[in-house]
Amino acid sequence: MAEICANKILELEPENGAVYVLLTNIYAKCGRWEEVGRVKEMVMGRGVKKVPGCSLIEMNGEMHEFVAGDRTHESSDEIYAKMEEMGRALKLAGYAPDTAEVIFDICEEEKEDAVYRHSEKLAIAFGLLKSPAGAAIRVVKNLRMCSDCHNAVKLISAVYGRRLWCGIKRDSTTSAPLDARVMITGESFLFLFYS
């Protein structure tokens, strides 16, 4: 049913990148990897652009932007060292990576590595590095947060004793996890906070 709906939408809006992502996710959840590849080829062939997920954090009046796996930031080495420390601390607190939303036909270790480098985790690591102990950390995203990042952020808040605010630019696909406290500000942002 979802496949039929997605294909109908693509007939009406062949340039809508979100529909291709949805269709790819549907096929991946069903383990239909050949179909995932077919949709990706279709995206490339049609020149459709997918908006990359990114996270922004303001520090000392300057905005810092991160995308998944980003190593272009001037503090990249420090950030990844902090990520390693966070990973160890989170595992001690009971964290296990949730790779259910990874849509690539790769081994579990590679899936864990993929979720480990999501943009919000990089932004939070930067915030932990550059803000005083106990200070709140505010991150704004352009896309929803995956379940792994939601679970990790809850634990990071507890482990590091920080209040974490994750603002998500609202659109028709934005949803809030049930166990996050939600505050809606205006029409365009949804903030989740963890304390």
Automatic annotation (TrEMBL):
<dbReference type="Pfam" id="PF20430">
    <property type="entry name" value="Eplus_motif"/>
</dbReference>
<dbReference type="InterPro" id="IPR032867">
    <property type="entry name" value="DYW_dom"/>
</dbReference>
<dbReference type="InterPro" id="IPR046849">
    <property type="entry name" value="E2_motif"/>
</dbReference>
<dbReference type="InterPro" id="IPR046848">
    <property type="entry name" value="E_motif"/>
</dbReference>
<protein>
    <submittedName>
        <fullName>Pentatricopeptide repeat-containing protein</fullName>
    </submittedName>
</protein>
<dbReference type="Pfam" id="PF20431">
    <property type="entry name" value="E_motif"/>
</dbReference>
<dbReference type="GO" id="GO:0003723">
    <property type="term" value="F:RNA binding"/>
</dbReference>
<dbReference type="GO" id="GO:0008270">
    <property type="term" value="F:zinc ion binding"/>
</dbReference>
<feature type="domain" description="DYW">
    <location>
        <begin position="94"/>
        <end position="164"/>
    </location>
</feature>
<dbReference type="InterPro" id="IPR046960">
    <property type="entry name" value="PPR_At4g14850-like_plant"/>
</dbReference>
<dbReference type="GO" id="GO:0009451">
    <property type="term" value="P:RNA modification"/>
</dbReference>
<dbReference type="Pfam" id="PF14432">
    <property type="entry name" value="DYW_deaminase"/>
</dbReference>
